[in-house]
Design the sequence.
């Protein structure tokens, strides 16, 4: 039967493969090659070796963006997952209107990053106005602004995944533990957390990669102000490509390093948390 | 048991407070969309009063300024068409790559999986150039880019689901004399329906809200809603706050309506997408 299906490659796989090649494979390979060249229009590329990579690391904006992104990712990943897990615990108890609450908490996730950025710009500037400052006076405002924005957006999404995980914990096991006199804390640590580990794996994966790759929210909220101090990696790469003529190669080198960082962090995280998962 | 029951009214109250806090950013924007632009930045948390209320003026001026309805139409066109293309083609590819067990097919499959962890910035510049060179830099061409860049996750999700379909079903159809195309469209695709809905929803959420890809590929000649909203921020960061508030409200309304109608599928889709991922 496999032979029969195989004959229809042109129908079943070719259209997707062509689009995938044009939108991903070719740009990806070209991107790696171009990171070692100096170019402005792709056709005029001249080989410069590791020059772009050296220039990228000499770029203060890039190093600042790297540091900003790392701090932001750690803070927001921890806070998003802690809050999402706690809310999920509350919403798996028998409380009136849990479905309505789930609907409300998830809603921000559907709103696009640009719109989210402007919504929160209004709110933060409204609060800061009382202290005679604005969001772009101090990079700390932009940092915490992004953390709050990201929490608002992603808590609902992660909460849905945690709820699904918590609901999979067998009732008998919880009851048996209660009969044995286990406290709520012990039940949480010894039964719920280990069994919810697959949800933790996926929520960490999603929140790390979303935080690390953040662009739209960053652009709309502060656009990097004051003086690029709140620009994250994705925004810094964008600015290098489209804001500095002659730096396209450096932008591409930054992008390659960005890809390697995202890839390594995500793979390491998956390997660590997968090992902690147990057979359900 | 008794003591949890006693706590429940407080738990309920706590959740109500939290829900109000969660909704307040949207309500604040809604409230401000009816205020004059000079009253928005200094007191955004105050209800509109007789001095500050200006009716629908922000809406009419904002709609004109960014040509909202054309942006809405463009977003709708790109989202519907590219999601339809993605579901149609990647379902076939996901099935094909699962059923055909050659080295070449599995290499291809891993390439799709690999593309899922590659951030957009890695291919941002070269993808834009490729689209320019082969003439995909228009509202129709971008559909192919969306199919290509979105195919990784979708092929992966379909393929995971196909593994759970017993081969016997396909063998039975084969014995009845159906070729692979009839088999796929008449028998397999209907079975794939739940995962097709998941794939469609995850892609709608991505494509509808996407800013950078359409901005770079088709430029500002045809604006989608996120591009039109960003366009309201003029040079040197000056923003017409009144028009901005009104346009944010109009940008939120369609997605909230979509959510309330497909809520069940969206929540299930997120869970299904997460478990497979």
Sequence:
């Amino acid at each position: 039967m496999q032979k029969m299906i195989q004959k229809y490659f042109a129908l079943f796989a070719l259209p997707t493969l062509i689009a995938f090649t044009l939108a991903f494979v070719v740009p990806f390979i070209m991107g790696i090659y171009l990171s070692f060249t100096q170019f402005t229009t792709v056709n005029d590329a001249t080989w410069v070796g590791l020059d772009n990579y050296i220039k990228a690391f000499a770029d203060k904006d890039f190093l600042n963006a790297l540091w900003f992104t790392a701090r932001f990712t750690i803070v927001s990943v921890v806070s998003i997952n802690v809050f999402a897990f706690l809310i999920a615990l509350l919403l798996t108890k028998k409380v009136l209107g849990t479905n309505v609450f789930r609907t409300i908490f998830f809603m921000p996730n559907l709103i696009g990053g640009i719109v989210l950025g402007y919504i929160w710009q209004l709110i933060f500037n409204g609060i800061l106005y009382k202290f005679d400052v604005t969001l772009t006076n101090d990079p700390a405002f932009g940092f915490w602004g992004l953390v709050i924005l990201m929490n608002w957006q992603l808590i609902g999404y992660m909460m849905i995944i945690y709820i699904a995980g918590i609901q999979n914990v067998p009732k008998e096991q919880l009851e048996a533990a209660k009969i044995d006199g286990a406290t709520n804390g012990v039940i949480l640590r010894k039964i719920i957390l280990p069994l919810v580990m697959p949800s933790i794996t996926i929520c960490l994966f999603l929140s790390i990669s979303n935080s690390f790759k953040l662009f739209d929210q960053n652009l709309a909220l502060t656009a990097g102000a004051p003086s690029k101090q709140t620009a994250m990696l994705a925004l810094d790469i964008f600015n290098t490509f489209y804001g500095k003529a002659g730096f396209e190669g450096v932008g591409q080198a930054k992008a390659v390093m960005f890809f390697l960082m995202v890839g390594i962090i995500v793979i390491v995280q998956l390997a660590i948390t997968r090992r902690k998962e147990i057979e359900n | 048991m008794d003591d949890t029951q006693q706590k429940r009214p407080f738990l309920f109250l706590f959740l109500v407070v939290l829900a109000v806090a969660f909704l307040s950013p949207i309500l604040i924007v809604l409230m401000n969309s009816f205020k004059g632009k000079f009253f928005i930045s200094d007191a955004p948390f105050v209800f509109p009063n007789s001095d500050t209320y200006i009716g629908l003026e922000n809406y009419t001026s904002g709609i004109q300024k960014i040509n909202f309805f054309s942006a809405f139409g463009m977003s709708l066109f790109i989202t519907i068409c590219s999601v339809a293309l993605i579901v149609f083609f990647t379902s076939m590819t996901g099935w094909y790559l699962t059923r055909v067990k050659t080295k070449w097919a599995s290499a291809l499959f891993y390439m799709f999986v690999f593309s899922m962890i590659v951030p957009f910035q890695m291919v941002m510049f070269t993808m834009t150039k490729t689209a320019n060179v082969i003439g995909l830099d228009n509202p129709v061409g971008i559909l192919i880019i969306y199919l290509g860049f979105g195919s990784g996750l979708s092929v992966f999700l379909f393929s995971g689901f196909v593994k759970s379909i017993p081969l016997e079903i396909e063998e039975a159809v084969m014995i009845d004399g159906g070729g692979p195309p009839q088999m796929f469209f008449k028998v397999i695709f209907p079975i794939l329906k739940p995962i097709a809905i998941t794939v469609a929803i995850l892609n709608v959420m991505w494509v509808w809200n996407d800013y950078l890809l359409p901005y770079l590929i088709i430029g500002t000649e045809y604006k989608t809603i996120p591009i039109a909203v960003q366009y309201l921020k003029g040079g040197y960061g000056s923003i017409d706050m009144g028009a901005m508030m009104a346009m944010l409200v109009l940008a939120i309304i369609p997605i909230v309506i979509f959510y309330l109608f497909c809520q069940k599928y969206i929540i299930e889709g997120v869970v299904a997408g997460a478990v497979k991922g």
Notes: Chain B has a mean pLDDT of 90. The two ends of chain B are 37 Å apart (CA to CA). The first helix of chain B runs from residue 2 to 32. Chain B touches chain A through 100 residues (CB under 8 Å).
